[in-house]
């Protein structure tokens, strides 16, 4: 926890430094939400090969960050995280000047049934 999924348009493939974004995102999450540590963050990236935005005119790209956290955080905390993540997205996509970048963030609660396990590293 948290689980983070970033859908990004193929048009951002070359200009979007995903690993750099994830490292900054994990630090930001730990600084913004009590109970989140950098070590607990997990981010997956999913390139969207095709997206239709508005009237399907060229020159548009999308990026959407879905942030799932344990229940119990209030709206002010989620809103602060959402705004901070959106600012980070904007900074990391600023070099994509050939397209209008449509950026969004959704902060949601994990289900009450969420469970996880981390297997320890074993000697070979």
TrEMBL record:
GO molecular function terms here?
isomerase activity
The signal peptide here is none
Q: Give the keywords, sorted.
A: Isomerase
> Please, which domain of life does this record's source organism belong to?
Bacteria
**What start-end ranges are recorded for coiled-coil regions in this protein?**
none
Q: What are the transmembrane regions?
A: none
InterPro entries documented for this protein: 5-COMe_2-OHmuconate_Isoase, Tautomerase/MIF_sf
Please name the PANTHER family in this protein's record: 4-HYDROXYPHENYLACETATE CATABOLISM PROTEIN
Q: What is this protein called?
A: Isomerase
């Amino acid at each position: 926890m948290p689980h983070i999924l970033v859908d990004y348009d193929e048009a951002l493939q070359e200009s979007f430094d995903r690993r750099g974004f994830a490292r900054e995102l994990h630090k930001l999450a730990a600084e913004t939400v009590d109970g989140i540590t950098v070590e607990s963050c997990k981010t997956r990236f999913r390139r969207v090969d095709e997206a239709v935005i508005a009237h399907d005119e060229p020159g548009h790209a999308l990026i959407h960050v879905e942030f799932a956290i344990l229940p119990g955080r209030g709206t002010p905390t989620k809103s602060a995280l959402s705004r901070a993540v959106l600012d980070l997205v904007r900074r990391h996509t600023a070099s994509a000047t050939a397209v209008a970048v449509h950026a969004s963030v959704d902060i949601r609660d994990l289900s009450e049934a969420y469970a996880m396990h981390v297997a320890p590293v074993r000697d070979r």
